């Protein structure tokens, strides 16, 4: 398991359209996922300890951000042949267990993860109402264990700012997580 950090935010880079299968049986597009004030796009998986440590906080923040007109979507990009815990059936179970309030989508070709430049799980991309990138940072201080209660909610605060102003903070701390498990072609 290689630990990676996300790159610096490429401000104003446009979100890439997609059409991906959700655990709810629907096909979801970028347009269907966005909120009136923006979109939080998350690359996550089921097996990564960094993701496991923050799943409940992701759900909390996604629910609160809806009140600011920011919708969320999660994409699972890993090679399930080598990581069966990330299989579609297990995605369905995890989404149900944690009551994901957002679509959980399967990037079976890994083309969307590549198009976005995702490098790890979790990897967060925060877009404004014009679907221009404004945040590429961490959720909070959590690593393989949840951070203490009461720590700064970096992602939530940044996306709240995006909802209110259209712009994200210039200072951002990278997310850290497991490398995406790319398929060997």
From TrEMBL:
Residues 9-161 form the Thioredoxin domain. It comes from the Bacteria. GO terms for molecular function: antioxidant activity; oxidoreductase activity. Pfam families: AhpC-TSA. Signal peptide: none annotated. InterPro entries: AhpC/TSA (IPR000866), PRX-like1 (IPR047262), Thioredoxin-like_sf (IPR036249), Thioredoxin_domain (IPR013766). This is Thioredoxin family protein. The lineage of its organism: Bacteria, Pseudomonadati, Pseudomonadota, Gammaproteobacteria, Methylococcales.
């Amino acid at each position: 398991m290689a630990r990676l950090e996300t790159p610096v935010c490429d401000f104003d880079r446009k979100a890439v359209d997609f059409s991906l299968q959700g655990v709810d049986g629907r096909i979801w597009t970028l347009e269907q996922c966005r909120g009136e004030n923006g979109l939080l796009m998350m690359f996550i998986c089921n097996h990564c300890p960094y993701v496991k440590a923050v799943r409940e906080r992701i759900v909390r923040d996604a629910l609160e951000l809806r009140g600011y007109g920011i919708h969320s979507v999660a994409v699972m990009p890993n090679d399930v042949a080598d990581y069966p815990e990330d299989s579609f059936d297990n995605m369905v179970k995890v989404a149900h267990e944690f009551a994901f309030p957002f679509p959980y989508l399967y990037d079976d070709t890994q083309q969307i993860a590549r198009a976005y430049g995702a490098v790890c799980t979790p990897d967060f991309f925060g877009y404004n109402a014009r679907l221009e990138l404004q945040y590429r940072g961490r959720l909070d201080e959590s690593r393989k264990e949840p951070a203490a209660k009461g720590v700064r909610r970096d992602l939530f605060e940044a996306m709240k700012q995006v909802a209110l102003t259209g712009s994200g903070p210039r200072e951002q701390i990278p997310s850290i997580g497991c490398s995406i498990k790319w398929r060997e072609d």
